[in-house]
From TrEMBL:
Disordered: annotated segments: 1-24
InterPro entries from the UniProt entry: Metallo-depent_PP-like
Compositional bias of kind Basic and acidic residues: 13-23
Alphabetized UniProt keyword annotations: Membrane, Transmembrane, Transmembrane helix
Protein's name according to its UniProt entry: Calcineurin-like phosphoesterase
Organism: Micromonospora purpureochromogenes
Transmembrane among keywords: yes
Segments passing through the bilayer: 44-67, 376-394, 406-426, 447-467, 479-500
Protein backbone atom coordinates (compact mmCIF):
# COMPACT_ATOMS: atom_id res chain seq x y z
CA UNK A 1 0.00 0.00 0.00
CA UNK A 2 1.35 3.39 -0.98
CA UNK A 3 0.91 6.66 0.86
CA UNK A 4 -0.44 9.89 -0.51
CA UNK A 5 -0.06 12.98 1.64
CA UNK A 6 -1.95 15.92 0.08
CA UNK A 7 -1.34 18.26 2.98
CA UNK A 8 -3.36 21.48 3.23
CA UNK A 9 -1.37 24.62 2.63
CA UNK A 10 0.44 23.34 -0.46
CA UNK A 11 2.97 25.73 -1.92
CA UNK A 12 1.76 25.11 -5.50
CA UNK A 13 -0.11 28.24 -6.66
CA UNK A 14 -3.75 27.57 -7.53
CA UNK A 15 -3.45 28.95 -11.06
CA UNK A 16 -0.58 26.59 -11.84
CA UNK A 17 -2.03 23.49 -10.19
CA UNK A 18 -1.36 20.41 -12.32
CA UNK A 19 -4.29 19.41 -14.50
CA UNK A 20 -6.43 22.38 -13.44
CA UNK A 21 -7.55 25.03 -15.88
CA UNK A 22 -8.52 28.48 -14.68
CA UNK A 23 -12.28 28.83 -15.03
CA UNK A 24 -13.55 31.68 -17.21
CA UNK A 25 -16.03 33.76 -15.25
CA UNK A 26 -19.53 33.88 -16.78
CA UNK A 27 -20.88 37.12 -18.19
CA UNK A 28 -24.53 36.20 -17.56
CA UNK A 29 -26.73 33.58 -15.91
CA UNK A 30 -27.23 31.83 -19.23
CA UNK A 31 -26.44 28.09 -19.05
CA UNK A 32 -24.03 28.47 -21.96
CA UNK A 33 -22.05 30.98 -19.90
CA UNK A 34 -22.27 28.96 -16.69
CA UNK A 35 -21.31 25.70 -18.38
CA UNK A 36 -24.22 23.85 -16.76
CA UNK A 37 -27.98 24.15 -16.50
CA UNK A 38 -29.37 25.02 -13.05
CA UNK A 39 -32.10 22.48 -12.37
CA UNK A 40 -35.35 22.67 -10.46
CA UNK A 41 -35.90 20.28 -7.55
CA UNK A 42 -36.70 16.74 -8.58
CA UNK A 43 -40.50 16.21 -8.72
CA UNK A 44 -40.41 12.92 -6.85
CA UNK A 45 -44.08 12.05 -7.40
CA UNK A 46 -43.96 12.59 -11.16
CA UNK A 47 -45.40 9.40 -12.73
CA UNK A 48 -42.54 8.70 -15.14
CA UNK A 49 -39.96 9.42 -12.46
CA UNK A 50 -41.71 7.06 -10.05
CA UNK A 51 -41.69 4.35 -12.71
CA UNK A 52 -38.07 4.92 -13.77
CA UNK A 53 -36.85 5.10 -10.17
CA UNK A 54 -38.73 1.92 -9.35
CA UNK A 55 -37.15 0.18 -12.34
CA UNK A 56 -33.68 1.38 -11.34
CA UNK A 57 -34.22 0.19 -7.79
CA UNK A 58 -35.44 -3.18 -9.05
CA UNK A 59 -32.48 -3.53 -11.41
CA UNK A 60 -30.10 -2.57 -8.61
CA UNK A 61 -31.67 -5.27 -6.42
CA UNK A 62 -31.59 -7.91 -9.17
CA UNK A 63 -28.28 -7.13 -10.83
CA UNK A 64 -26.41 -5.15 -8.19
CA UNK A 65 -23.92 -7.93 -7.65
CA UNK A 66 -23.14 -7.99 -11.39
CA UNK A 67 -22.71 -4.20 -11.57
CA UNK A 68 -20.63 -3.98 -8.39
CA UNK A 69 -17.29 -2.39 -9.33
CA UNK A 70 -15.78 -2.57 -5.87
CA UNK A 71 -14.01 -5.86 -6.57
CA UNK A 72 -12.44 -4.30 -9.68
CA UNK A 73 -11.08 -1.42 -7.60
CA UNK A 74 -8.47 -3.78 -6.25
CA UNK A 75 -6.52 -2.85 -9.40
CA UNK A 76 -6.52 0.82 -8.38
CA UNK A 77 -3.93 2.40 -6.12
CA UNK A 78 -4.60 2.06 -2.40
CA UNK A 79 -3.58 5.37 -0.94
CA UNK A 80 -3.91 6.69 2.58
CA UNK A 81 -4.26 10.46 2.53
CA UNK A 82 -3.11 12.91 5.16
CA UNK A 83 -4.70 16.27 5.93
CA UNK A 84 -3.11 18.80 8.29
CA UNK A 85 -3.62 22.54 8.40
CA UNK A 86 -0.79 25.09 8.59
CA UNK A 87 -1.28 25.51 12.36
CA UNK A 88 -1.16 21.78 13.06
CA UNK A 89 -4.94 21.53 13.35
CA UNK A 90 -7.61 21.19 10.66
CA UNK A 91 -10.98 22.57 9.61
CA UNK A 92 -13.22 19.87 8.18
CA UNK A 93 -16.63 20.21 6.47
CA UNK A 94 -19.27 17.53 6.00
CA UNK A 95 -22.20 17.81 3.56
CA UNK A 96 -24.49 15.10 2.18
CA UNK A 97 -27.54 14.62 -0.07
CA UNK A 98 -26.64 17.66 -2.14
CA UNK A 99 -27.29 17.12 -5.84
CA UNK A 100 -30.91 18.28 -6.17
CA UNK A 101 -32.47 21.64 -7.08
CA UNK A 102 -30.09 24.53 -7.74
CA UNK A 103 -31.35 26.89 -5.04
CA UNK A 104 -30.84 24.44 -2.17
CA UNK A 105 -27.64 22.88 -3.50
CA UNK A 106 -25.96 26.15 -4.41
CA UNK A 107 -27.01 27.91 -1.19
CA UNK A 108 -25.08 25.30 0.79
CA UNK A 109 -22.19 25.19 -1.69
CA UNK A 110 -21.93 28.98 -1.56
CA UNK A 111 -21.62 28.96 2.23
CA UNK A 112 -19.07 26.14 2.14
CA UNK A 113 -16.94 28.09 -0.33
CA UNK A 114 -16.80 31.42 1.50
CA UNK A 115 -13.49 32.42 3.05
CA UNK A 116 -15.13 32.73 6.46
CA UNK A 117 -18.56 32.38 8.04
CA UNK A 118 -19.73 34.20 11.13
CA UNK A 119 -22.29 31.96 12.84
CA UNK A 120 -23.83 32.98 16.16
CA UNK A 121 -20.68 34.82 17.18
CA UNK A 122 -18.27 32.11 16.00
CA UNK A 123 -15.83 32.97 13.20
CA UNK A 124 -15.43 29.80 11.15
CA UNK A 125 -12.85 29.86 8.32
CA UNK A 126 -13.30 27.86 5.15
CA UNK A 127 -12.47 24.20 5.71
CA UNK A 128 -9.30 22.67 4.34
CA UNK A 129 -11.07 19.32 3.83
CA UNK A 130 -14.57 18.71 2.50
CA UNK A 131 -16.39 15.37 2.85
CA UNK A 132 -19.43 14.65 0.68
CA UNK A 133 -21.40 12.00 2.50
CA UNK A 134 -23.46 10.38 -0.27
CA UNK A 135 -26.16 10.98 -2.88
CA UNK A 136 -24.17 13.61 -4.72
CA UNK A 137 -26.82 13.54 -7.47
CA UNK A 138 -30.56 12.93 -7.96
CA UNK A 139 -32.52 11.14 -9.23
CA UNK A 140 -30.02 8.91 -11.08
CA UNK A 141 -26.27 8.78 -11.53
CA UNK A 142 -26.19 10.04 -15.13
CA UNK A 143 -23.10 12.08 -15.93
CA UNK A 144 -25.24 15.03 -17.13
CA UNK A 145 -27.10 15.04 -13.81
CA UNK A 146 -23.79 15.20 -11.93
CA UNK A 147 -22.72 18.16 -14.07
CA UNK A 148 -25.94 20.14 -13.62
CA UNK A 149 -26.90 19.24 -10.06
CA UNK A 150 -23.53 18.80 -8.32
CA UNK A 151 -20.27 19.65 -10.08
CA UNK A 152 -21.62 22.75 -11.84
CA UNK A 153 -23.01 24.42 -8.69
CA UNK A 154 -19.86 23.60 -6.70
CA UNK A 155 -17.60 24.98 -9.41
CA UNK A 156 -19.71 28.15 -9.48
CA UNK A 157 -19.28 28.41 -5.69
CA UNK A 158 -15.48 27.91 -5.72
CA UNK A 159 -14.24 28.18 -9.33
CA UNK A 160 -10.53 27.59 -8.70
CA UNK A 161 -8.52 26.47 -5.73
CA UNK A 162 -7.51 29.09 -3.14
CA UNK A 163 -3.90 29.05 -1.89
CA UNK A 164 -4.60 26.46 0.82
CA UNK A 165 -5.93 24.04 -1.88
CA UNK A 166 -8.79 22.28 -0.02
CA UNK A 167 -9.30 18.59 -0.66
CA UNK A 168 -12.52 16.69 -1.33
CA UNK A 169 -13.45 13.13 -0.35
CA UNK A 170 -16.79 11.53 -1.27
CA UNK A 171 -18.79 8.57 0.01
CA UNK A 172 -21.16 7.03 -2.58
CA UNK A 173 -24.84 6.84 -1.65
CA UNK A 174 -27.61 4.72 -3.13
CA UNK A 175 -28.32 7.21 -5.95
CA UNK A 176 -24.62 7.24 -6.85
CA UNK A 177 -24.87 3.45 -7.13
CA UNK A 178 -27.68 3.36 -9.72
CA UNK A 179 -25.16 3.04 -12.58
CA UNK A 180 -22.81 0.77 -10.65
CA UNK A 181 -20.58 3.71 -9.60
CA UNK A 182 -19.46 4.46 -13.18
CA UNK A 183 -20.04 8.24 -13.08
CA UNK A 184 -18.97 8.48 -9.43
CA UNK A 185 -15.58 6.91 -10.15
CA UNK A 186 -15.06 9.20 -13.15
CA UNK A 187 -15.67 12.29 -11.05
CA UNK A 188 -14.12 11.52 -7.68
CA UNK A 189 -11.61 8.73 -8.38
CA UNK A 190 -9.31 9.63 -11.23
CA UNK A 191 -5.62 9.77 -12.04
CA UNK A 192 -5.61 13.13 -13.85
CA UNK A 193 -7.47 16.45 -13.56
CA UNK A 194 -7.93 15.67 -9.90
CA UNK A 195 -10.13 18.58 -9.03
CA UNK A 196 -13.81 19.26 -8.45
CA UNK A 197 -14.28 22.99 -8.89
CA UNK A 198 -11.80 24.52 -6.45
CA UNK A 199 -11.46 21.32 -4.42
CA UNK A 200 -8.82 18.74 -5.25
CA UNK A 201 -10.04 15.13 -5.19
CA UNK A 202 -8.11 13.07 -2.67
CA UNK A 203 -9.27 9.45 -2.94
CA UNK A 204 -8.16 6.56 -5.14
CA UNK A 205 -11.19 4.30 -4.58
CA UNK A 206 -14.87 4.63 -3.63
CA UNK A 207 -13.76 4.34 0.01
CA UNK A 208 -10.92 6.13 1.75
CA UNK A 209 -8.84 6.64 4.87
CA UNK A 210 -7.43 10.02 5.88
CA UNK A 211 -4.95 10.64 8.66
CA UNK A 212 -5.90 13.83 10.51
CA UNK A 213 -4.10 15.83 13.21
CA UNK A 214 -3.66 14.65 16.80
CA UNK A 215 -4.31 10.93 16.14
CA UNK A 216 -7.71 11.51 14.56
CA UNK A 217 -8.63 9.47 11.50
CA UNK A 218 -11.41 9.87 8.93
CA UNK A 219 -12.62 6.61 7.37
CA UNK A 220 -15.20 6.53 4.56
CA UNK A 221 -17.02 3.24 3.91
CA UNK A 222 -18.76 2.04 0.77
CA UNK A 223 -21.33 -0.58 1.76
CA UNK A 224 -24.26 0.76 -0.25
CA UNK A 225 -24.78 -2.05 -2.75
CA UNK A 226 -25.56 -4.71 -0.18
CA UNK A 227 -25.18 -5.85 3.39
CA UNK A 228 -21.54 -6.83 3.02
CA UNK A 229 -18.14 -5.20 2.64
CA UNK A 230 -16.15 -6.47 -0.30
CA UNK A 231 -12.84 -8.22 0.23
CA UNK A 232 -10.60 -5.54 -1.41
CA UNK A 233 -12.19 -2.92 0.84
CA UNK A 234 -11.63 -5.02 3.95
CA UNK A 235 -8.02 -5.66 2.88
CA UNK A 236 -7.53 -1.91 2.39
CA UNK A 237 -8.79 -1.13 5.88
CA UNK A 238 -6.75 -3.99 7.33
CA UNK A 239 -3.70 -2.06 6.15
CA UNK A 240 -5.11 1.14 7.62
CA UNK A 241 -5.67 -0.64 10.94
CA UNK A 242 -1.94 -1.37 11.17
CA UNK A 243 -1.44 2.35 11.78
CA UNK A 244 -4.07 2.59 14.49
CA UNK A 245 -3.64 2.12 18.20
CA UNK A 246 -5.36 2.83 21.52
CA UNK A 247 -4.59 6.52 21.08
CA UNK A 248 -6.41 6.71 17.72
CA UNK A 249 -9.81 8.40 17.45
CA UNK A 250 -12.03 7.62 14.48
CA UNK A 251 -14.59 9.60 12.49
CA UNK A 252 -16.49 6.98 10.49
CA UNK A 253 -18.45 8.28 7.47
CA UNK A 254 -21.06 5.82 6.18
CA UNK A 255 -23.72 6.02 3.44
CA UNK A 256 -26.83 5.72 5.65
CA UNK A 257 -27.80 6.15 9.34
CA UNK A 258 -28.38 2.46 9.90
CA UNK A 259 -28.47 3.07 13.65
CA UNK A 260 -31.89 4.68 13.06
CA UNK A 261 -33.02 2.32 10.30
CA UNK A 262 -32.26 -0.70 12.47
CA UNK A 263 -35.21 0.23 14.69
CA UNK A 264 -37.48 -1.27 12.00
CA UNK A 265 -34.89 -3.40 10.18
CA UNK A 266 -32.63 -4.93 12.85
CA UNK A 267 -30.09 -6.25 10.32
CA UNK A 268 -29.44 -2.79 8.81
CA UNK A 269 -26.59 -2.03 11.22
CA UNK A 270 -24.82 -5.39 10.82
CA UNK A 271 -22.32 -4.23 8.20
CA UNK A 272 -21.08 -1.28 10.24
CA UNK A 273 -20.98 -3.35 13.40
CA UNK A 274 -18.92 -6.01 11.61
CA UNK A 275 -16.46 -3.37 10.41
CA UNK A 276 -16.02 -1.81 13.85
CA UNK A 277 -15.87 -5.14 15.64
CA UNK A 278 -13.43 -6.91 13.31
CA UNK A 279 -11.26 -4.11 11.85
CA UNK A 280 -11.14 -1.30 14.39
CA UNK A 281 -11.81 -2.83 17.83
CA UNK A 282 -8.74 -5.12 17.78
CA UNK A 283 -6.49 -2.06 17.40
CA UNK A 284 -7.88 -0.41 20.53
CA UNK A 285 -8.90 2.64 18.47
CA UNK A 286 -12.03 4.51 19.58
CA UNK A 287 -14.83 5.34 17.14
CA UNK A 288 -15.90 8.69 18.55
CA UNK A 289 -18.16 9.85 15.74
CA UNK A 290 -20.38 8.01 13.27
CA UNK A 291 -21.68 10.36 10.59
CA UNK A 292 -24.07 9.88 7.69
CA UNK A 293 -26.47 11.52 5.29
CA UNK A 294 -29.35 9.74 3.47
CA UNK A 295 -32.04 11.20 5.76
CA UNK A 296 -32.35 14.84 4.82
CA UNK A 297 -32.16 16.54 8.20
CA UNK A 298 -29.83 16.98 11.17
CA UNK A 299 -30.09 14.65 14.16
CA UNK A 300 -27.62 13.70 16.89
CA UNK A 301 -27.78 10.68 19.18
CA UNK A 302 -25.40 10.64 22.15
CA UNK A 303 -24.23 7.50 23.89
CA UNK A 304 -21.58 6.29 26.30
CA UNK A 305 -18.95 5.74 23.60
CA UNK A 306 -19.69 7.94 20.63
CA UNK A 307 -21.90 10.42 18.84
CA UNK A 308 -24.20 9.29 16.01
CA UNK A 309 -24.96 12.17 13.65
CA UNK A 310 -27.20 12.31 10.61
CA UNK A 311 -26.64 15.40 8.48
CA UNK A 312 -28.25 15.10 5.07
CA UNK A 313 -29.26 18.71 4.54
CA UNK A 314 -26.99 19.54 1.59
CA UNK A 315 -29.71 20.30 -0.96
CA UNK A 316 -32.32 17.54 -1.24
CA UNK A 317 -35.91 17.88 -0.01
CA UNK A 318 -36.37 18.04 3.75
CA UNK A 319 -37.03 14.78 5.61
CA UNK A 320 -39.03 15.05 8.88
CA UNK A 321 -37.56 14.86 12.36
CA UNK A 322 -40.71 14.48 14.45
CA UNK A 323 -40.91 10.70 13.85
CA UNK A 324 -37.38 9.99 15.03
CA UNK A 325 -37.19 7.60 18.01
CA UNK A 326 -36.18 9.33 21.23
CA UNK A 327 -33.96 6.42 22.26
CA UNK A 328 -32.31 3.69 20.20
CA UNK A 329 -30.23 0.64 21.03
CA UNK A 330 -27.10 0.10 18.94
CA UNK A 331 -26.65 -2.59 17.78
CA UNK A 332 -30.31 -3.61 18.19
CA UNK A 333 -30.87 -6.51 20.54
CA UNK A 334 -33.01 -8.39 18.02
CA UNK A 335 -30.42 -8.47 15.24
CA UNK A 336 -29.87 -11.87 13.64
CA UNK A 337 -26.12 -11.44 13.84
CA UNK A 338 -24.75 -14.05 16.23
CA UNK A 339 -21.61 -12.07 17.06
CA UNK A 340 -22.92 -8.54 17.40
CA UNK A 341 -21.21 -6.09 19.70
CA UNK A 342 -22.66 -5.28 23.10
CA UNK A 343 -25.83 -3.22 22.84
CA UNK A 344 -25.72 0.32 24.23
CA UNK A 345 -28.43 2.98 24.50
CA UNK A 346 -28.27 6.27 22.61
CA UNK A 347 -30.55 9.24 23.25
CA UNK A 348 -31.75 11.80 20.72
CA UNK A 349 -30.29 15.03 22.07
CA UNK A 350 -30.65 17.40 19.10
CA UNK A 351 -32.52 17.66 15.80
CA UNK A 352 -33.06 20.23 13.07
CA UNK A 353 -35.66 21.31 12.29
CA UNK A 354 -37.23 20.77 15.70
CA UNK A 355 -40.17 18.40 16.10
CA UNK A 356 -42.83 21.13 16.22
CA UNK A 357 -41.60 22.77 13.04
CA UNK A 358 -41.33 19.39 11.34
CA UNK A 359 -44.98 18.64 12.15
CA UNK A 360 -46.02 22.02 10.74
CA UNK A 361 -44.13 21.21 7.56
CA UNK A 362 -46.14 18.00 7.28
CA UNK A 363 -49.42 19.92 7.05
CA UNK A 364 -48.07 21.74 4.00
CA UNK A 365 -48.75 18.61 1.94
CA UNK A 366 -52.24 19.88 1.03
CA UNK A 367 -51.23 22.92 -1.03
CA UNK A 368 -47.83 21.63 -2.14
CA UNK A 369 -48.76 18.16 -3.43
CA UNK A 370 -50.86 19.20 -6.47
CA UNK A 371 -48.76 22.21 -7.43
CA UNK A 372 -45.29 20.71 -6.91
CA UNK A 373 -46.32 17.50 -8.71
CA UNK A 374 -48.67 18.46 -11.59
CA UNK A 375 -47.93 15.21 -13.42
CA UNK A 376 -49.07 13.20 -10.41
CA UNK A 377 -52.28 15.24 -10.17
CA UNK A 378 -52.88 14.75 -13.90
CA UNK A 379 -52.40 10.98 -13.51
CA UNK A 380 -54.92 10.90 -10.66
CA UNK A 381 -57.38 12.86 -12.79
CA UNK A 382 -56.99 10.46 -15.72
CA UNK A 383 -57.43 7.36 -13.56
CA UNK A 384 -60.48 8.79 -11.81
CA UNK A 385 -62.02 9.82 -15.13
CA UNK A 386 -61.72 6.27 -16.43
CA UNK A 387 -63.11 4.90 -13.16
CA UNK A 388 -66.05 7.30 -13.31
CA UNK A 389 -66.88 6.38 -16.91
CA UNK A 390 -66.82 2.69 -15.95
CA UNK A 391 -69.11 3.30 -12.96
CA UNK A 392 -71.41 5.52 -14.99
CA UNK A 393 -71.65 2.86 -17.68
CA UNK A 394 -72.76 0.23 -15.17
CA UNK A 395 -75.22 2.62 -13.48
CA UNK A 396 -76.81 3.70 -16.75
CA UNK A 397 -77.18 0.13 -18.06
CA UNK A 398 -78.74 -1.73 -15.13
CA UNK A 399 -81.72 -2.97 -17.21
CA UNK A 400 -79.83 -5.08 -19.74
CA UNK A 401 -77.90 -7.99 -18.28
CA UNK A 402 -75.68 -8.40 -21.37
CA UNK A 403 -74.79 -4.72 -21.51
CA UNK A 404 -74.22 -4.64 -17.76
CA UNK A 405 -71.70 -7.45 -18.02
CA UNK A 406 -69.92 -5.67 -20.87
CA UNK A 407 -69.63 -2.45 -18.84
CA UNK A 408 -68.74 -4.30 -15.64
CA UNK A 409 -65.52 -5.73 -17.07
CA UNK A 410 -63.68 -2.38 -17.27
CA UNK A 411 -65.17 -1.37 -13.92
CA UNK A 412 -63.70 -4.44 -12.22
CA UNK A 413 -60.35 -3.72 -13.86
CA UNK A 414 -60.39 -0.07 -12.77
CA UNK A 415 -61.40 -0.99 -9.21
CA UNK A 416 -58.53 -3.47 -9.09
CA UNK A 417 -56.06 -0.91 -10.43
CA UNK A 418 -57.21 1.65 -7.87
CA UNK A 419 -57.01 -0.68 -4.87
CA UNK A 420 -53.73 -2.28 -5.90
CA UNK A 421 -52.20 1.07 -6.79
CA UNK A 422 -53.05 2.49 -3.37
CA UNK A 423 -51.79 -0.65 -1.64
CA UNK A 424 -48.51 -0.68 -3.53
CA UNK A 425 -48.12 3.06 -2.91
CA UNK A 426 -47.91 2.09 0.76
CA UNK A 427 -45.12 -0.32 -0.32
CA UNK A 428 -46.20 -3.54 1.42
CA UNK A 429 -43.99 -5.84 -0.74
CA UNK A 430 -40.80 -4.08 0.32
CA UNK A 431 -41.91 -3.04 3.80
CA UNK A 432 -40.33 -6.02 5.45
CA UNK A 433 -39.78 -4.36 8.78
CA UNK A 434 -41.90 -4.34 11.90
CA UNK A 435 -44.67 -2.23 10.35
CA UNK A 436 -45.52 -4.58 7.49
CA UNK A 437 -49.19 -5.11 8.47
CA UNK A 438 -49.63 -1.41 9.06
CA UNK A 439 -48.65 -0.74 5.44
CA UNK A 440 -51.34 -3.09 4.15
CA UNK A 441 -54.09 -1.69 6.37
CA UNK A 442 -53.34 1.92 5.51
CA UNK A 443 -52.82 1.19 1.81
CA UNK A 444 -56.09 -0.67 1.38
CA UNK A 445 -57.94 2.00 3.41
CA UNK A 446 -56.54 4.65 1.10
CA UNK A 447 -57.70 2.63 -1.91
CA UNK A 448 -61.23 2.36 -0.49
CA UNK A 449 -61.25 6.11 0.11
CA UNK A 450 -60.37 6.68 -3.55
CA UNK A 451 -63.13 4.30 -4.64
CA UNK A 452 -65.58 6.17 -2.41
CA UNK A 453 -64.48 9.44 -4.03
CA UNK A 454 -65.02 7.88 -7.45
CA UNK A 455 -68.56 6.80 -6.48
CA UNK A 456 -69.36 10.31 -5.25
CA UNK A 457 -67.88 11.80 -8.41
CA UNK A 458 -69.96 9.45 -10.56
CA UNK A 459 -73.16 10.45 -8.74
CA UNK A 460 -72.35 14.13 -9.25
CA UNK A 461 -71.45 13.63 -12.92
CA UNK A 462 -74.69 11.76 -13.70
CA UNK A 463 -76.65 14.65 -12.17
CA UNK A 464 -75.19 16.90 -14.88
CA UNK A 465 -76.39 16.90 -18.50
CA UNK A 466 -73.02 15.89 -20.02
CA UNK A 467 -73.61 12.14 -19.85
CA UNK A 468 -76.74 12.38 -22.03
CA UNK A 469 -74.86 13.99 -24.93
CA UNK A 470 -74.20 11.88 -28.02
CA UNK A 471 -71.00 9.83 -28.01
CA UNK A 472 -68.08 10.73 -27.89
CA UNK A 473 -68.98 14.10 -26.37
CA UNK A 474 -69.47 12.67 -22.83
CA UNK A 475 -65.93 11.27 -22.82
CA UNK A 476 -64.50 14.54 -24.16
CA UNK A 477 -66.41 16.57 -21.54
CA UNK A 478 -65.20 14.22 -18.82
CA UNK A 479 -61.59 14.68 -19.91
CA UNK A 480 -61.86 18.47 -20.10
CA UNK A 481 -64.17 19.23 -17.16
CA UNK A 482 -64.25 16.27 -14.80
CA UNK A 483 -60.60 15.19 -15.05
CA UNK A 484 -58.91 18.38 -13.77
CA UNK A 485 -61.43 18.84 -10.94
CA UNK A 486 -61.37 15.25 -9.72
CA UNK A 487 -57.58 15.17 -10.08
CA UNK A 488 -57.25 18.10 -7.70
CA UNK A 489 -59.78 16.61 -5.25
CA UNK A 490 -58.10 13.22 -5.43
CA UNK A 491 -54.71 14.80 -4.72
CA UNK A 492 -56.17 16.16 -1.50
CA UNK A 493 -57.33 12.66 -0.57
CA UNK A 494 -53.77 11.45 -1.19
CA UNK A 495 -52.47 14.35 0.92
CA UNK A 496 -54.83 13.43 3.76
CA UNK A 497 -53.74 9.80 3.49
CA UNK A 498 -50.04 10.76 3.61
CA UNK A 499 -50.62 12.91 6.68
CA UNK A 500 -52.49 10.13 8.49
CA UNK A 501 -50.11 7.39 7.35
CA UNK A 502 -47.12 9.53 8.34
CA UNK A 503 -48.42 9.67 11.90
CA UNK A 504 -48.14 5.86 11.94
CA UNK A 505 -44.66 5.91 10.43
CA UNK A 506 -45.82 4.82 6.94
CA UNK A 507 -45.05 6.76 3.73
CA UNK A 508 -43.18 9.35 5.79
CA UNK A 509 -40.72 9.83 2.95
CA UNK A 510 -43.52 10.41 0.41
CA UNK A 511 -45.20 12.90 2.76
CA UNK A 512 -42.16 15.16 2.48
CA UNK A 513 -40.86 14.15 -0.95
CA UNK A 514 -44.23 15.22 -2.37
CA UNK A 515 -43.68 18.70 -0.96
CA UNK A 516 -40.11 19.22 -2.14
CA UNK A 517 -39.27 21.57 0.74
CA UNK A 518 -36.07 23.43 -0.17
CA UNK A 519 -35.53 25.22 3.14
CA UNK A 520 -34.06 23.98 6.45
CA UNK A 521 -30.70 22.92 5.05
CA UNK A 522 -27.69 21.92 7.15
CA UNK A 523 -24.03 20.93 7.07
CA UNK A 524 -21.23 20.46 9.60
CA UNK A 525 -18.07 22.47 10.09
CA UNK A 526 -15.62 20.74 12.41
CA UNK A 527 -12.36 21.84 13.99
CA UNK A 528 -9.60 19.54 15.17
CA UNK A 529 -7.22 21.46 17.43
CA UNK A 530 -3.55 20.49 17.70
CA UNK A 531 -4.25 19.33 21.27
CA UNK A 532 -6.67 16.69 19.94
CA UNK A 533 -10.08 18.18 20.77
CA UNK A 534 -12.76 17.99 18.05
CA UNK A 535 -15.46 20.69 17.98
CA UNK A 536 -18.54 20.18 15.80
CA UNK A 537 -20.49 23.21 14.60
CA UNK A 538 -23.87 22.04 13.16
CA UNK A 539 -24.82 24.84 10.77
CA UNK A 540 -28.45 25.38 9.83
CA UNK A 541 -29.87 27.46 6.99
CA UNK A 542 -33.52 28.22 7.70
CA UNK A 543 -34.22 29.65 4.25
CA UNK A 544 -32.23 29.13 1.07
CA UNK A 545 -31.81 31.85 -1.53
CA UNK A 546 -34.08 31.80 -4.57
CA UNK A 547 -32.65 34.78 -6.46
CA UNK A 548 -29.06 35.02 -7.68
CA UNK A 549 -26.92 37.64 -9.36
CA UNK A 550 -23.48 37.79 -10.92
CA UNK A 551 -20.75 38.48 -8.39
CA UNK A 552 -19.03 41.82 -9.06
CA UNK A 553 -15.90 40.45 -7.34
CA UNK A 554 -13.71 39.32 -10.24
CA UNK A 555 -11.06 37.54 -8.18
CA UNK A 556 -10.50 33.95 -9.43
CA UNK A 557 -11.68 32.22 -6.25
CA UNK A 558 -14.80 34.37 -5.73
CA UNK A 559 -18.14 32.64 -6.26
CA UNK A 560 -19.65 33.32 -9.66
CA UNK A 561 -23.10 34.02 -8.21
CA UNK A 562 -24.18 35.71 -4.99
CA UNK A 563 -27.61 35.69 -3.33
CA UNK A 564 -29.72 38.82 -3.75
CA UNK A 565 -30.99 38.37 -0.20
CA UNK A 566 -28.49 37.55 2.53
CA UNK A 567 -28.06 33.91 3.49
CA UNK A 568 -28.04 33.74 7.27
CA UNK A 569 -26.56 30.55 8.71
CA UNK A 570 -27.00 29.75 12.38
CA UNK A 571 -26.16 26.90 14.74
CA UNK A 572 -28.68 24.06 14.89
CA UNK A 573 -27.43 23.45 18.45
CA UNK A 574 -24.46 24.69 20.53
CA UNK A 575 -21.05 23.39 19.43
CA UNK A 576 -20.31 19.79 20.45
CA UNK A 577 -16.78 19.05 21.70
CA UNK A 578 -15.18 15.60 21.76
CA UNK A 579 -11.83 14.99 23.41
Amino acid sequence: MSDDHPTSGSEVPAEHAPGERAARRPLSLDPVELGFTPRKPVPWLAPFLLISTGIRTLLAMLFGAYLDKRELQNALDSKIARQVGPDGGLWLDYVADLGDGFNGTYSVAYLLAQRELEVDGHRLPRAQTLVMGGDQVYPSAAYEAYEDRCKGPYQAALPVAPPERPTLFAVPGNHDWYDGLTAFLRLFVRSRDRHFGGWGTGQSRSYFAVELPADWWLLGLDDQSGSYLDDPQLAYFDEVARRLGPQSKIILAVPAPTWVKSVDHPTAYDSIDYFIRTILAPTGAHVRLLISGDLHHYARYAGPERQLITCGGGGAYLYPTHKLPERIEVPPKDTLSRRASATRPYDLVARYPDAARSRRYGWGIFPRLPFRNPGFTTLLGALHTLLMLAMAGVTANRTGSTEQRLFSVPLVIMLGVTLLGAAFFAKPPTAGGKRHVRHWILGVSHGLAQVGLAAAGTWAWLALPFYDWPWPLPAAAAAVVYGPVIGLVSSQVVAAYLLVAGSFGVNVNELFAGQGIEDSKSFLRMRIDPDGSLTIYPIAVDRVSRDWQLNPDESPTASWLTPKSTLTPRLAEPPVTLD
